[in-house]
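User: For documentation purposes, I need each entry recorded in a consistent format: the amino acid sequence on its own, followed directly by the corresponding structure tokens. There are two entries in this batch. Please keep commentary to a minimum and don't merge the entries.

Assistant: Recorded as requested. Entry 1:
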Amino acid sequence: MTPCCVPFSGFEERFEKEANLCSSAIRPSLVKPPEYMPENLTNNSAWMGGAILAKVVFPQNQHVTKADYDETGPSIIHRKCF
């Protein structure tokens, strides 16, 4: 176990136990950083994964800026994102 995971001791077992309570249509899984990844990168791996996901989910101009929202209001969400 790497030092970054010490505060989360028992997390994997709890996650697996609670994941088994989900319906069969939803099967969450725990993805660990590869063993070869330098330790300092594992501290930021969740953030990096979120950043990559955001790029995939919100490609080219589907994000809403504060200026857009202030100018148009809540309807901008439906126009730009759906």
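Entry 2:
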Amino acid sequence: MADREQPYDPYIPNGGANTQPGAQGQNGGNQRTAALQAEIDSTVGIMRDNINKVSERGARLDSLQDKTDNLAVSAQGFRRGANRVRKQMWWKDMKMRMCLIVGIIILLAVIIVPSVVATR
């Protein structure tokens, strides 16, 4: 049972000493494995950064969506207010025109009626 090899596990370091006699190529294999593991760790770190950036982007997009909704509500309120003011100004203009027309009619009546009465 002592001759039996231990199963390979890249996460358990060998401690720098070869436990198997006559294994010259294993040190090179360990270096290659360590290089691959370092590359994998680097890739995992980059992917974690990317995931964090995507989640931050999602939060910013949610914030932007909320701001867009608020702006749309404000624009609708502004449109209603502008229409209300436009109608008020139209009525004010119509009242002024009516007053001018009534004033001109009264002025014409003051001028025309006495001249018609005087000619009879």
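Summary note for entry 2:
Helices lie at 25-119.
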